[in-house]
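[Meeting: bench + compute handoff]

Bench side (C.D.) handed over the final construct sequence. Compute side (W.E.) agreed to return the predicted structure before the next meeting so the bench team could plan truncations. Sequence as handed over:
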Amino acid sequence: MRLSHRMAASAVAITASFLFFLSHLQNEKARQERDIEFNSQLLSESLRESVEPLLRRDPEGRLDSLVEKFGHRGRFAGMAVFDRHQALAVTGSLRSLLASPPKLIAECLRKDAAVAAFERIGKRGLYINALPLHRREKLVGVLATFHDTSYIDVRLARLWRSNIEHVVIQMLLFIVVLIALRKLFH
């Protein structure tokens, strides 16, 4: 009878450990997403100050230069500037992904307000932040920044792997203890 109580207690402990891990995993994902949202918003707001004046006149192609200058850097995948109908400038590494503007761009234009979301474009996970651009209080376009979110998946996969290793070790110890107790009481 004692053995079954110990087995039940061990099973409860392993289950509790796994449930704690799932909660930790969910919290970690939410934290990573909040961080990328906050950083994206800051970057987009600062870039908007540089982009809006270039929409008035840009004979030297400074908009293209700015978009390329701030292109793919680490987790920042790049940026794009759209008018009401098409892309005016796109970071080179994003051109193939943005053959047509993401739906978020149309939503930003329709609402004349910032819109952001985690999306998959092609096989890439991206966080897109779209901000409306104005000239004399009139909506003239959208600035979209794109952040690579693959590092979140990598981080969560590492946590899964680590937890599976811990659960396997706990189960092996549980089996060893059961075998030892069984031999001891028989």
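W.E. noted at the follow-up: The longest strand covers residues 124-135. C.D. will use this when planning the next construct.
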